[in-house]
Please model this.
Amino acid sequence: MQNCQGNGRSDKGYENWRWKPSQCDLPRFDAKKFLELMRGKTLAFIGDSVARNQMESMLCLLWQIETPVNRGSRKMQRWLFKSSSVMIARIWSSWLVHQFNEKFDYAPEGVTKLKLDLPDERIIEALPKFDVVVLSSGHWFAKQSVYILNDEIVGGQLWWPDKSKPMKVNNVEAFGISVETILKSVATHPNYTGLTIVRTWSPDHYEGGAWNTGGSCTGKEEPILPGKLVKNGFTEVMHEKQATGFNRAVEGVSESSKVKLKLMDITEAFGYRHDGHPGPYRSPDPNKITKRGPDGRPPPQDCLHWCMPGPVDTWNEMVLELIRRDVEGRKRNS
Model:
């Protein structure tokens, strides 16, 4: 769904723009170097569909030198690169915390409940198999759910039966709590000593509405120029809560665990890349609508995920650099 050229997008400029840090150099992705550094190890992407987008980007980058073998199951996607015994894995976890649908107190069956103070047990169970983990989430906190803390209903998103009583926790605060919960659990896991990378909030670029109310990024073919970026209030507050949750988790763990927690901040830099989304080119269907209608209404489109190739590949350049530094640090300390 993110193969924009394969889905008919004709402009290609978005493939060539690169983000350049102001105080250092970010090398292009070197697939051979990645496989050498990760020899015999497993990298796992854990989170929602944007985490899947980044995992698929990594597979495509590595596929250029070797075709992996699918070793996945319904519980976990896994791709093995035989020459180096490197495994790329993915676990779907929309909120990163424990979720269930059964009735709880006055919240009825069928509505998703989130125990914000308990991590997703599937992540904790799988952690010992991983050497590097990239965690990312957030966008599902816009979906309907009930928030539970200390076995008490404290809030909800698109769900709150008693409007006369204020919620204790809204969706933004719930996101921050979830980040702190999963990171503390990962950092204190007795059988996991790997590198944990938190990729920050991925900005979307819907204009004129949301994904389901006519929002559009049709026709965006170049990045936003410096100084022209219009701040997105929801993106900013979600990024702030994510960073706060990360910092609280770091403060609450040992010095050795702190070293293994890294915040990979992509939010502001990729706010400029409204050109990098699939837009209406989200399907190979030759009959799909890609132009605005006579009434100006935009076609169905995706302004959240990222084209491949495209800006998302830069995230994996950052991951490779963090892995390189981690490996070098371990060598110095051994």
